[in-house]
Amino acid sequence: MADADVSELLTAMHRIDVLRLSEEHKHELKVATSALSLALETPWEITMRIVWQEPSVHACICTLIDLEVFKRWVAECEEVRSCQELAELVGCDSRLMNRLLRNLASNGLLVNCGSQNYAMTEFTRSLAQTKHIAAFSYFRNLHLPMLTALPTYLASTKYQDSFLKHPTSTAFNQALGTKDGLFDYLSKHPDQERDFGHCMEAVSGSVPSWIEIYPTESSIVKSDGQRDDVVVVDVGGSIGHDLNAFQRKHRLQPGRLVLQDLAEVLEGARVESGITKMPHDFFTDQTVEGKSHPYIVIYSQQVRSAWDD
C-alpha cells in the first residue's frame, strides 16, 4: 500500500461517525482494527504493552479511584481541569497527580489539553459509576492475585486438572491463603461480595438478556389459571438483576418470582416489589413446587461457570 493510500485510509477513518454505526459494523471494525494494530507492532512492542503499559494503566486507574478523582471530577461538572485543581480537590501531591493523569492521557483515556490540563473521555467519566469501580476493585483484590498465582499453582500440579480431587487447593486458595471456595470466601468479605455482585449485574446488563430472547409470556399464560403459582425461580441469582428485569417487564403479583441465593448474599439484594427472596443452597434439594405447571428455573451465570453439571 502506497503512502497516498494510507493517507486516504486515515482520512476515511476520521470520518467515521461511531454513533451511527450498527452493532454489526462496530464489531467488524473492532476486529479489523485490532488485527491491524497487532500486525503493526513488533514482538518487543507487544511484550512492552503487556508487561509494562497495561499493568501501569491499571495501577493508575486504581489509585485515582481510591482518591475518588473521577467521582469528584464528574460531580464538579467541569470537563477540563488542571492537575493542580484535581490534586487540591482530593488532597494529593500535584506532581503525583500529573504523573497519574499523564499516563492515562498517553493511552488515550484522557485528553491532554496542554499546560497540565486534562479533559475526560467517555471511559474516564464511566469510572465514577459503581459498576466500573466494582470491576476494578474485584480485579485488584481477587482476580489479579489468582492470575498471578496461576502459573506457580499449575506447575505444582504438574499441569494436571486436579480440581475435582482437591477442590480447596486451587490458584484461588493459594493466592488468597484460604481453604474456602470463592463464594464462601465472599460471604466472609462483604465488600468484595458486593463488588462481585455489581460485576455480575454489569455483565448481565452488557449482553442481551434471556428475557428479551425467551418467550416469557408463554410461561405466564401457562400458569394463568393459578394466579399465585410460581413462574420463575432464579437459583444463585445474586442480587436479582435478572428477576428485576423480568418483573419490570411483566409486573406479576407477589409469590410468582423467587430469588434464591445464600442468606448473606440476599441481604444485599434490592429487588422489585413482588419478588420473593428465599435463602437456598443449590447443593440441596429444591423446595419450590409449582402447583399446576412447571416453572422456569434459572441457574445464574456464576453457578454455570463455577460448577460442572
TrEMBL record:
One protein family per Pfam: Dimerisation
Superkingdom classification of source: Eukaryota
PROSITE patterns hit by this protein: SAM_OMT_II
Domain O-methyltransferase dimerisation: 59-129
Family annotation (Gene3D superfamilies): Vaccinia Virus protein VP39, Winged helix-like DNA-binding domain superfamily/Winged helix DNA-binding domain
GO terms for MF: methyltransferase activity; protein dimerization activity
Protein name per its UniProtKB record: O-methyltransferase dimerisation domain-containing protein
Organism name: Aureobasidium pullulans
Phylogenetic placement of the source organism: Eukaryota, Fungi, Dikarya, Ascomycota, Pezizomycotina
